[in-house]
Amino acid sequence: MTTTPEEERPADSVEELEQKADDAPESKDEQPALYEPDESKLKRLDAQPGLVKTARALRKLLPGDREYGDPLSVSGDEPAQRLGQRLAQQTAERPSAMREVGLSALQVWQSLSEAQGRGRGDVEVAILFTDLVEFSEWALQAGDTLAVDLLRDVSRAVDPCVQGHGGKIVKRLGDGLMAVFPDTQGAVEAAIESCAAAEQVEVAGHRPQLRAGVHVGKPRKVGSDYLGADVNIAARVADAAGGGEVLVSDIAVEKLDADGFKLKKRWRFSAKGAPRDLTVYTAKPRD
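Below the sequence we write its predicted structure tokens.
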């Protein structure tokens, strides 16, 4: 009977088997490319310039903010914004196709949210700005510790007024804040109550005076912030107010139930960055 070469080959001796074991690669790094870990293959594929370029091009065809992923668009504490923050941070150091795909999904989600009335540009809101009159001068004399105590006490007094009328605090601006409301009536009522509440605060014998301005518009919503001309106008209206005073733009006045307030036209009003024909009114509660 004829045997094949394989059958004629004698079995490996113990010494030969031990030598083969010694010659085998000792770590993953020494293994041939055929055994490259899947994770490394995916990273190289994810960073391929052509794939990244294609993913970015596809993003431009999708609805929503094409720049979603920058610091402005992902600022805030909502779940989608936090996810966007983590995705942007983890992939910021290298090109990534998966980053573009992930941000594309969030971009579309944001666009759908805006279409349902939770986004930017198409939703009218009442914008409120407040700040403390001559706070900086007082803080220089009082020192940082008392200044922080005052700001905390003012926030405790003012925040419930804003939130109690359906307002959402967008951001804090040192000694003031910006808030948005679904209706103008609530914004003006919150402004009046906030000024009165701030006057009840006392720190080291100092009673602060709050001033406020209200304007209505359709600002652009980026992340958790609002930007645009209407925001700037609201800030300028607030800047023109005196201590304890609430100023309301003529556009906002048109949307008020005038029977609920005493409104008096401010004849001398001009503010850099505000329309020249803008008229403002002081608003006070009716007795």
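Residues 125-285 form a domain with the Alpha-Beta Plaits fold (CATH 3.30.70.1230).
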